[in-house]
């Protein structure tokens, strides 16, 4: 079969253009992620209180009360500590996370009943955190370098203009093949994330609601609702009592401080 010269020329032009379009989408996706990160840099540290509402497929609920501390680290990811205050069966349980830009995150879990600090292997980072629909990797700071990016399209969510990006985890131990992220164009805040599992099936959706601004710059969501589409379970994190620049230091984020956090 003969291929007409004009069709052959068009095919070659299209083939040559595709890599350029892919590079353009990757560059634009990365630029949006970097701008979102730039706008959230410089707060130094904060404390906050929050509740975790667990709901199973039958609609049964359980509520936990927690505190969190966070510290920015120059040229690396953040350090965070989450401490459970109620109910009594989890009181004193605490998670310490050292996020990193390139290397796998370091995480330790203190279990007061055993009086033992357990290191969370990077191979287990996709596991559920304390029975919630949040994985350990979801609780680490989302550094730009943890993903590769692709701009999908301009979109709209609840009447607001959005960037829709796809980001693929660089870490081979991630429980996700890819994530779709909706970022509002006005303030570069994440509004919705869809998580796809290792079989590339939709696993979870995270929705952010009730953003409030602190120090005239930093936006924090009042609610983060994670729905698991494969199990029918959900987890609602409700944040309150944000206090920024309270003087937290590296010494507040050690495995010894993890034991003393209750």
What does it look like?
The longest helix has 35 residues, at 5-39. Helix content is 15%, strand content 43%. The model has no long low-confidence stretch (mean pLDDT 92). It starts with a helix and ends with a helix. It is globular. It has 262 residues and is of the alpha+beta class.
List the helices and strands and how they pair.
Blueprint: H1 5-39, E1 45-55, E2 61-71, E3 79-86, E4 94-98, E5 106-111, E6 116-120, E7 147-157, E8 160-169, E9 178-184, E10 190-196, E11 202-209, E12 212-214, E13 218-220, E14 223-228, E15 234-244, H2 255-259
Antiparallel strand pairs: 1-2, 1-15, 2-3, 3-4, 4-5, 5-6, 7-8, 8-9, 9-10, 10-11, 11-14, 12-13, 14-15
Secondary structure: helix percent: 10-25%
- Average pLDDT, rounded to a whole number, is 92
What characteristic shape results from the CA principal axes? Answer: globular
- Low-confidence segments, given as residue ranges, are none
Number of strands: 15
Beta percentage is 35-45%
Cα Rg: 21 Å
Largest beta sheet, briefly?
13 strands, antiparallel
Series of H and E elements: HEEEEEEEEEEEEEEEH
How widely separated are the two ends?
77 Å
The strand order across the widest sheet is: 6-5-4-3-2-1-15-14-11-10-9-8-7
Number of separate helices: 2
Helix and strand composition category: alpha+beta
């Amino acid at each position: 079969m003969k291929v007409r010269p004009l069709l052959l020329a068009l095919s070659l032009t299209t083939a040559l253009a595709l890599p350029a379009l892919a590079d353009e989408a990757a560059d634009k996706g990365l630029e949006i992620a970097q701008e979102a990160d730039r706008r959230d840099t410089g707060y130094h540290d904060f404390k906050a209180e929050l509740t975790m509402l667990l709901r199973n497929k039958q609609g049964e609920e359980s509520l936990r009360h927690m505190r969190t501390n966070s510290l920015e680290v120059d040229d690396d990811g953040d350090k965070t500590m989450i401490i459970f205050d109620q109910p009594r069966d989890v009181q004193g349980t605490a998670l310490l996370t050292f996020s990193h830009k390139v290397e796998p995150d370091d995480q330790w879990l203190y279990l007061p009943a055993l009086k033992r600090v357990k290191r969370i292997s990077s191979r287990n980072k996709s596991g559920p955190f304390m029975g919630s629909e949040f994985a350990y990797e979801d609780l680490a700071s989302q550094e730009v370098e943890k993903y590769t990016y692709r701009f999908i399209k301009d979109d709209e969510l609840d009447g607001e203009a959005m960037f829709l990006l796809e980001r693929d985890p660089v870490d081979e131990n991630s429980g996700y093949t890819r994530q779709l992220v909706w970022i509002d164009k006005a303030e570069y805040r994440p509004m919705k994330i869809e998580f796809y599992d290792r079989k590339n099936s939709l696993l979870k959706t995270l929705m952010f609601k009730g953003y409030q601004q602190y120090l005239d710059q930093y936006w924090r969501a009042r609610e983060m609702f994670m729905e698991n589409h494969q199990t029918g379970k959900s987890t609602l994190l409700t944040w309150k009592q944000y206090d920024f620049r309270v003087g937290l230091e590296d010494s507040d984020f050690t495995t010894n401080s993890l034991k003393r956090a209750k």
